[in-house]
């Protein structure tokens, strides 16, 4: 049955669906980046509020700034902007149709429709999921990268921007000039201090063309930090077939694990939904939750995905089932990451490692190693290197972290141990591949990428271990290196 407003009442009884009147919803949020994660996470929390009769004036307007986003808009428009969420629990699968999104802005050069929609006084939050690498951050300094061509374009053409941030600035200028007032900018990406990073990007970009506007944004808009967590695989043929098993024709279904978490700093300048009534947590200490999740879960993904790619393991659950890769994750996490993580209410870092180990091992989650290993240049710098720096500063163990970096370098040579080719899997792939090939004979060539490693390439304790592990990987192979670490 084709998913639409008209067919909701005819869906199989086992499928949960909106009990609220979608035609009565009014918008309150523009969300830029309508991938699977947003629809399986933030949109679900809002949907669950609406199921309680709450937040009826906070419906989501979808948006995007890339040409490919227009295809997603058309897919969702054809089914009245709803998505089927399929929970992949080893105990049994279930499906729920989420109806909290009611429109999707046309994607056009210059982003005129997006700017106009964000100027609407009804819009009080502009949220984003644009990936960790989408905030124009210099990976070495963590500062704003004003040299990027997209940023240079938006600085020179503030009325017809390319980026989501340029569009936000253009809308905020109109809101200031017409007296509508500010909105909250809410990052939902896996970045520690994501609100502060979003503020940095928006204010820094605005300053390049209009310093007065930048000062107004900085003083009047809020950018709350948040921690988001739910494993949401990409949609492919298997997921499209799975939704049909529930009797639904959905062109954009979302599969997800049986776990969600959303921790938010309560800093909203123009109001917000009561997400806590749907299970989110508002707190003044998002940082501790962020650090635990980013370092153990997101960092753990990098620990296992690189050896998985080299050894031709297709799925993350397969990495955990591998006798060496799964054990590698548990040892690195417990002995090297946990000492650099603080507990949060109700959860110790060690208990969190056990939770993540079980989540990664869920065989129902068909999460590819390739997806998890994508964009290592952002993910290693954001998820692994901060832990490594803290471990070096406290003279804590780093053997497994050094091996993790050596495995990344080995993966970036572009060939698996079975001789097959690893297709480019990073925005900086050409540079990474060249450095990785040079590092086969000279390991320091990898660490001389200062845009990634900064001064870590000058730390003898780290460089010596990295070089030893990389040589072992090339000389004896990945399993030999993992075994040496586990037996060390």
UniProtKB/TrEMBL annotation:
InterPro entries according to UniProt: 6-PGluconate_DH-like_C_sf (IPR008927), 6PGD_dom2 (IPR013328), Mannitol_DH (IPR000669), Mannitol_DH/Oxidoreductase (IPR050988), Mannitol_DH_C (IPR013118), Mannitol_DH_N (IPR013131), NAD(P)-bd_dom_sf (IPR036291)
Location of the Mannitol dehydrogenase N-terminal domain: 28-277
Highest taxon listed in the record's lineage: Bacteria
Mannitol dehydrogenase C-terminal domain sequence ranges: 285-468
Keyword Ligase: no
GO MF, any single term: oxidoreductase activity, acting on the CH-OH group of donors, NAD or NADP as acceptor
Keywords noted in UniProt: Oxidoreductase
Alphabetized SUPFAM superfamilies for the sequence: 6-phosphogluconate dehydrogenase C-terminal domain-like, NAD(P)-binding Rossmann-fold domains
UniProt keyword annotation of Oxidoreductase present: yes
PANTHER family in alphabetical order: MANNITOL DEHYDROGENASE 2-RELATED, MANNITOL DEHYDROGENASE DSF1-RELATED
Full protein name: Mannitol 2-dehydrogenase
